[in-house]
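FIELD: query
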Amino acid sequence: MEFVHPERLWFLFFLLIPIVIHLFHFRKRKTLYFSSLRFIQFLEKEQQSTRKLKHLLVLLSRLLAFTALIFAFAQPQSKNGEGQRSGKPALLIYLDNSFSMTAIGTEGTLLSEGRELAKRMLQTVSPATRVLICSNALNHVEQRFQTKAEALRYLDQIESYALTRTLDDVLSWQQRQIKKHQELKEKLGQIKQVFISDFQQSQARLEQQKPEANQSFFAYQLKAQQNQNAYIDSIWFAKPTHHINTDQMLMVRVQNFGTQAKKRLELNIKIGQIKRTMFMQIDAGAEQIASFPYKEINNGSVLCQAHINDQQIHFDDTWYFSYEVPDQTNIYLIEEANSSPNVAKAFAVEERYKVWKTLPGQVSSTALAETDLIVLNGLDEIPSGLREDLITAHQNGQRILIIPGEDITFNDYNPLLRELSLCELGAPQANALNLQRINDADPFFSGVFEKKQQKWNVPMVKKAYSVLNATNSSATPLLIARSGQALFMRSNTTAFLWTTALQPSFGSMVNQSLFPTILLRCAEFASQRYPNYAILGKDAQIKVRASHSNEAPLRFISAETEFIVQYVGTPNNLRLQIGGTAALERLKAGLYELKGIETLAQIALNYNRIESQLKLLSKSELIDLLESNGIKNCNFNQIKEGQSLTAIELKESNSYWRLFLIFGLIFLLVELSLLKWWK
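FIELD: result
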């Protein structure tokens, strides 16, 4: 037998007090005899033995009562845990510290309640118990078993975390640590695994488990006082590109997850130096999209945020974003000497487009890497070196526009088109190629046409290269001929392809106003330098177009932190790595400068909204999930509103403190009975 609180056994020394009192009260006294009282001595001699027995029984009952009570407060239990398993017992506690645990419960936030509940459980186990505390971080500290004292200190260090873990993540982690500990150190006895969480539906992923016979599971579900939350779900722009002195429209989607309507929800928007406050009315369980028109007034990076004043959970109340208004767009035009000059003329209409022209055999890899839009104009052949450079540029996020030549080599073109997720080309055809339909519902044409055209006055295209494997491609047709042939197509707005050449033998499309409009639209899409924002814990990489040398490390810098970020890619096309535990522990949602020797870009980071809807697993759903994946007889406890955490404990089947408490009460009753009824 061992004790949870062995230090309380020192109170056994206080048992000497009633013994001393008893001996002092019944010490020997000198006897004086009087003649008139001599007859009483005969009566006393007869009762003496009875009195001594009574006093001894009272003393014994008192001593046993106090001994039992002291043992009860010391909490005795069997040494080897449940049964007679050898090895030291183990307690594994998972404390969910995702953002949904910042909701208000009965005694503070759910996270603080869970922390106190875990501490309460630690008080009920023996000092010999091996303890493993883990949270959503699952970091190196949570890889090792700790003592009770170490575990209590570590619990105080657990704060809210930007990542949500599934039940499979947690269980798999715990099983690995158990196996590692037993292989390196000692065999564990009874293993108790405790899960403290609100059990969001986002956690409901679990694969088949094979627990050992000495493993038992406990689940404690914490619930918020109010299951209400309004949050910013997403933002976007009506136009995907930004240019100075142009009108723009910001769209903000706000969700109301709850049973109460938001009659006057305040929305604050800040775009650079522009600020505006709006009030929204959103029904229960509904969403609303707010639109904010404004005008671009400056070139360069624009820092923005949208914020709502919600009274419940706050991690999803703000959405940070940034974008760049470029002062120029660099276009690298690769063409033959006999290529159509109309392509260069189309880009020359606006000063912000800077065009560099070169022959296919004179392409500079360095210049190519610094280009926003790469245009292949009228090439019949694509050298293998150029093809590899184009594939690399596409992987780095650069836009590519392909206008085929009059007599192309399909073995040069089609491998490149496959890499760009475009359709392959086949032999030219000349049947029913007049333009029939423009896919003006596509984002590519957003804001291009003032009103929908019913009929297009475009001359017939004489020839166009046939489209192969269209059903196996993700390319989207944008100009469609009467025959169904795609005349112009895109692939995720990153690569564009004309299927007709610009030579007179293929038609006169080059002379129509629609042609330069499409070229300029391709250049506008190319002007996007990097994403508006990234999601912490979700996006593994952020693409940035910036020139960086290796002379200084890349850093995320804000008013609160400075974080060295890893990157891959070329110095002019960086892919920032923001995944991993270190980034999630150091970085918070907000606006950051990306800095090497100098500032390279402005980066906005946001938290994942996966827990914003606060959808909880019910008891039956959780039990079914566990049992269907090999975890039987899990003890489920739901912490109800108004229930004190001091009344919650991890029940130990081998604990004897209740038994000793009962014994103590019995001995006290025996003592009282002896004093009252034994005269």
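FIELD: remark
Confidence is low (pLDDT under 50) at residues 79-84.
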